[in-house]
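Lecture 7, part 2: worked example. A protein chain together with protoporphyrin IX containing FE.
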Amino acid sequence: MFRTAKRDVALNGQQIREGDRLALWYLSGNRDAQVLDDPDQFIIDRRHSRKYLSFGAGIHYCPGERLATMQLEVLWEGILEQNLIIDVVEQPKRLHSNFIRGFWLFSHRHRFDLVSDANSAVT
Ligand code: HEM
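Predicted complex, written out as structure tokens:
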């Protein structure tokens, strides 16, 4: 995503001119060492954990955030209920993107381990 500067401004020692197009680097923002302790660690209960930038910030904040988080909730509930096991069969290849931290190749086999559930029901 981009923004266009409406006026000249100096920011963190960089001169930005009116009309310059600026790329938003959300991934870096979520790992900003000036804001977060241990920015590269996955700390689910970190202080200010709701202040991540994955859905943007300010006037253009993602209006689909509630839908997206609800979909993720349903997905994770399904995965956990059915005990989905994913076996990675090849080194995954990462996507080169300033927006999505993902993979373009993720070879895997998956199965649902319902046996352990059945066992726990009879013990
Ligand atoms: C995990 C899923 C999603 C992620 C990570 C995501 C992320 C984002 C981000 C970072 C922005 C801000 C862009 C900016 O600052 O210019 C944005 C904007 C937007 N998102 Fe999402 N989004 C997701 C799902 C959705 C869904 C499900 C919808 C619609 C149903 C949606 C609709 C929009 C729209 C219309 C904007 C533009 C808002 C504006 O420019 O004022 N997004 N999204």
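Residues 65-81 form the longest helix (17 residues). Residues 63-123 form one domain. Keep this in mind for problem set question 3.
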